[in-house]
């Protein structure tokens, strides 16, 4: 029975990806969940959002990078939780009553996965016209912008629209974690 549920979940993820790609290709208005990290507003396409839950007990996992807060039990599934502020190289803020975890579905070469993202506050769902989305800025060769899907213009301000698959890439998160462990490890002695 569990195999059937897994197959249904994978098919649902493929169907969602097809709908998402068709919407983007058609240039239609798209809905985005907006949220705050500190004072800055970010957005992720609503089709990638599975649910929003109150920040609760997160089980820390040893030897993970600082931006991985740990895992949660979401209806029996183990879901990793990433602190997006730390992932972006910012300082973590204290949890408040508005701190929550946004469950996001991401696509990878191994299929679809759910990940939790800690945000300071969820704002609202906005519909942003395709014409009001600018391409990601070019910063040059040493600064990454591939995690930005676009810059949404809302009431004269920008909302950074994230590419969830890039920001939460399982492969990249594990590589960054390995690099962090390597950098924090004591130097090896060379015996001649």
Could you please describe the fold and organization of this structure?
This protein has 192 residues and is an alpha+beta fold. The chain has helices at 2-26, 84-87, 164-167, 170-184, and strands spanning 30-37, 40-45, 49-54, 68-74, 77-83, 100-108, 111-119, 121-128, 133-134, 148-154, 157-162. The protein has one domain: OB fold (Dihydrolipoamide Acetyltransferase, E2P) (Beta Barrel), CATH 2.40.50.180. It contains 4 helices and 11 strands. The chain has a 6-stranded mixed sheet with strand order 8-1-2-11-10-9. A 5-stranded mixed sheet has the order 3-6-7-5-4. Strand 6 (100-108) and strand 7 form a beta hairpin. The longest helix is centred in the first third of the chain and has 25 residues, at 2-26.
Features:
4 helices; disordered C terminus; OB fold (Dihydrolipoamide Acetyltransferase, E2P); globular; six-stranded mixed beta sheet; single chain; five-stranded mixed beta sheet
Task: State the gist of this model.
With 192 residues, this protein is α+β, with helices and mostly antiparallel strands.
């Amino acid at each position: 029975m569990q195999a059937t549920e897994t197959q249904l979940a994978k098919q649902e993820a493929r169907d969602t990806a097809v709908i998402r790609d068709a919407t983007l290709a058609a240039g239609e208005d798209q809905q985005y969940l907006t949220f705050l990290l500190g004072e800055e507003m970010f957005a992720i396409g609503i089709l990638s959002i599975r649910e929003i839950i109150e920040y609760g007990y997160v089980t820390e996992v040893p030897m993970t990078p600082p931006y991985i807060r740990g895992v949660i039990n979401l209806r029996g599934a183990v879901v990793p939780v990433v602190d997006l502020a730390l992932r972006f190289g910012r300082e973590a803020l204290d949890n408040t009553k508005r701190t929550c975890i946004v469950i996001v579905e991401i696509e990878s070469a191994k299929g679809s996965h759910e990940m939790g993202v800690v945000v300071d506050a969820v704002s609202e769902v906005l519909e942003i016209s395709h014409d009001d989305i600018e391409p990601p800025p070019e910063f040059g060769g040493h600064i990454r912008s591939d995690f930005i899907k676009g810059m949404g213009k809302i009431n004269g301000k920008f909302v950074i629209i994230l590419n969830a698959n890039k920001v939460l890439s399982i492969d990249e998160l594990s590589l960054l974690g390995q690099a962090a462990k390597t950098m924090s490890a004591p130097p090896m002695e060379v015996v001649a």
